[in-house]
Amino acid sequence: MRAVAKAGRLWKGPENDGAGVLLSEWEKPGWTYHAKGLSSVSSGGPDSYLKYIGVWLSPNLSSPPVLTLFGSTNLNSRSAHIDTELSFLLIIPSESATSESMQARGETDAAFLTLRQQLDCEISRIRSNAVEWQGGRRKVRWTTKFIVWLVKGML
Amino acid sequence: MPANFYLSANLNKSYFTNRQDRYLYFSAEKTLAQYCFDFVNTVTKFSYQLLPNFASHSSRVSSPHSYSREDYTLNWPYTDTHPHHINEKAEKAFSQLQKLYRPPLTQDNSRDATPPTRNTLLIPIIQAGQFNIREEESTFKLLFRHLGKLTAWRPMLNLTSGYFSLYKPYQDLILQVPNVDCRIMAASPKVIFFFTARLLLRDDFWLGQWLLWFTWHLW
Fold first, then answer.
1. Is residue B190 part of a domain?
2. For A38-84, what is each residue's pLDDT tens digit?
3. B6 located within any domain
4. Residue B22 belongs to domain spanning
5. Are residues B37 and B60 in the same domain?
6. How far is CA A119 from CA A7, A34, A58, A65, B149, in A?
7. Which of A18, A37, A140 lies nearest to residue B14, judging by beta carbons?
8. What is the CB-side half-sphere exposure of residue B117 using CA atoms within 13 A?
9. What percent of chain B has pLDDT over 70?
């Protein structure tokens, strides 16, 4: 959060009608986020799992996305340097080609819009469990910071 | 070859029980199916082969880097390349695969980013830093460079990063391009497995400390 503040990019305004960089945490009772194959040792632990890593780009805050990135990447340093990741960039036109007939264009535009709205639903669903960012308030020992600095390229 | 398939995370059992993953279903997409098939074949070229340890397979065990245990053999396909030194081979193989599926930019269409017929585009992106393949990084840089030029627009980027800290160059791009708004979602400590496991719940456990620092403090 300090880096965001330092860059002068702190989010201003409500979540669905603001600007800047908004950091949030995902939290849902009984759920865990991105636990790969750990359910067998989770007695007394969470019941359900979420793995939802991706990117969605919209022309503006009130428009549904026209681009999304999905695949195996975790968008972290380990994915960038150590693992082999295959992802896909899906790009949806905001309107069909003018060379098509009026009827065909109408059908194509409707299909594009449906797909974009489905991507928008993904964002709404995941953001419905967003809570306030607490990162700056958590206490961490200097030894931990040092160890993380040593192995940061692998994480 | 199947032309209908799902693209998602892993395919192990836990991913189909009480999970919410990101699945995208594609139907009648033979080119996509062929690409995925070719990707697997490309990786297979520099992977160990698991073979039953029968005498009949001994002729296929070709490398001093292969080894046998009990009733199986891990066969390394190259005699001249150590498994730790596959970087050049892998880089070449991945580059060739991408070149095969990506139409070359001509002088005409390099000037105009608008394709001649508008349709949904699906672009495969390989990121394999060890093999000097960094398409994901290039994509992020190109995307933000393009978005930064759209001064009349106010694009909105939503991003989810799980419990991992977002790669630093991506953080920098988000912070440095002022006209792109961004909402980023990371996992709360309460929904990370290590924290929900009672044994590791204590805040002073080093792994918990590591997660706190690495995920939530670098921003």
1. no
2. 333 344 455 566 667 899 999 999 999 999 999 889 898 888 999 99
3. yes
4. 1-44
5. no
6. 29, 20, 10, 6, 25
7. A37
8. 4
9. 66
Q: Between chains, do A138 and B217 touch, taking CB under 8 Å as contact?
A: yes
Decide if B7 is inside a domain.
yes
Residues B6 and B31 in one domain: yes
pLDDT of residue B198 exceeding 50: no
Assigned token pair, B178: 């002022």
Please indicate whether, in this complex, the C-beta atoms of A93 and B118 are within 8 angstroms of each other.
yes
Residue B105, in any domain of the structure: no
Q: How many distinct structural domains can be found in chain B? A: 2
Domain residue spans of chain A: 24-132
The answer to whether the complex's ipTM is over 0.90 is: no
Model confidence, pTM = 0.81
Chain B nearest-CA distance from A145, in A, is 7
Using a CB-CB cut-off of 8 Å, the residues of chain A touching B197 are 41-42, 45
Rg from Cα positions in chain B: 23
Q: What is the DSSP string of B85-115?
A: --HHHHHHHHHHHHHHHSPPPPHHHHH--S-
